[in-house]
Amino acid sequence: MRVLHVPYNYYPDPVGGTEVYVAALAREQRARGFDPMIAAPGNSTQEYSHAGLPVFRFAGRTSMPLADMYGDGDPEAARNFEPVLDRFRPDVLHIHARSQAVSVLLVRAAKKRGIPVVFTFHTPTVTCASGTMRHLGKQPCDGEMRVSRCAACMVQGKGAPLALARIAGVLPPATGRFLGAAGLEGGMWTALRSTELLEVRGAAVRRMLNEADHICAVCQWVKDVLLRNGIPSCKITLSRQGVPYAVAAPAAAPGRGESGTLRLVFLGRFERMKGLDAVVEAMGSVSSPAVTLDIFGIAQSEAARRERDRLKDRIAGDPRIRFCDPVGAEQVVSLLAGYDALLVPSLWLETGPLVVYEAFAAGIPVVGSNLGGIAELVDDGVNGLLVEPGIAGDWAKAILRLVEEPALIARLAAGPKNIRTAEDTARDAAAVYARVVERRTAEPMPQEQIA
């Protein structure tokens, strides 16, 4: 079976968890006799090979009007994508993102050619305009797309005062259409157009979800969000992420290093919503020298580099905290095995995250935010600890508890864990593909394809 995967980005560019997932899934599919390929947006249309897989980059517009940005997508990117479909004629198109370039227009191009489409919901940005699934940056959101609520949240998330965000959320969409017709956008004008733009965005998201043949949810809260937004349960498969590389489990349960020091580690992007501020503040209030924190952070943009530098300034003079160079995906599990616990202090609803599975595979417990996918995987007091997100005092208590109760680490490490691998995700995908291909085969061919 020929499968064309379309993520948001791809190697050799800096990548995130979605691309690691896609690469591992494609690699496992190839081992199972599938013929996987990758197509991803890029600055130019090109073709190359990465890790033995053919990769095709398709270019799109560098700028678009606001209404188009929030709408069905970039027609130029779709036009540049269509030759890939025509050349390789995949049996299934598997989309892993929703963006300007990766849009419902790609779904339609595939279905016009009789190719079934599977969509995997990887990140909150699919349905959440602010990308955090936290209403007004505070409480977890139920994920139902509502124009007024989502508009206020989006404006507040961009740094506007709460009062302005609330005003923007109650303006009728017609106000935004009037301002748009006058050519007003950017800054305050975009805020005042938020209900119009969120109405457009919500309709576009629903079209993409409805027109895909099947949707894979990588955690339970994603499935719940899909159900709340009208996607029928029979169209959704819960398929959690899996460790991308097979690594032997540690020979023994982890314990304190020879010095008796508690070794903590963080892996992730330098973004405010990853919650490192609370951990750094917590470390500052834990005076014990018997704890260290190594931060393996990824800076994928200039904003991320500024965030990294800001955090470095905050911890200046604390020798217990080190900033380390990021490691390749295939090294993560073996790296984690050298620590006592992984910290995952995210402020937003993670859909995995993948690093939790990697920590479990390495045999170490997770101290994570009591939120989203983290709370679905970590059983508090059994295989890790759950902490209220963003509350530095609570994180300090959790860290101090691990310092003062050395036996707790071994007990948590020995607790039962749900460890999935790329084999599991490939098995789930194969079952989904079989269903959509069978259903598509049973349907009449699109009229434009009938000779």
Question: How would you characterize this protein structure?
Answer:
With 451 residues, this protein is an alpha/beta fold. Among the domains are: 149 residues, Rossmann fold, CATH 3.40.50; 153 residues, 3-Layer(aba) Sandwich (Rossmann fold). The protein has 18 helices and 16 strands. Strands 3-4-2-1-5-6-9-10 form an eight-stranded mixed beta sheet, with helices on both faces. A six-stranded parallel beta sheet has the order 13-12-11-14-15-16, sandwiched between helices. The chain has a two-stranded antiparallel sheet with strand order 7-8. Helix 3 packs parallel to helix 4, helix 4 runs parallel beside helix 9 and helix 5 packs across helix 9. The two termini are 25 Å apart.
Gyration radius (Cα, Å) is 23 Å
- CATH domain topology of the domain at 262-414: Rossmann fold
Shape: globular
Structural class: alpha/beta
Secondary structure tally: strands: 16
> Quick check: average pLDDT?
90
Spatial strand sequence of the major β-sheet: 3-4-2-1-5-6-9-10
Task: Determine the number of helices (DSSP H or I, runs of at least 4 residues).
Answer: 18
Low-confidence stretches: 445-451
> Distance between termini?
25 Å
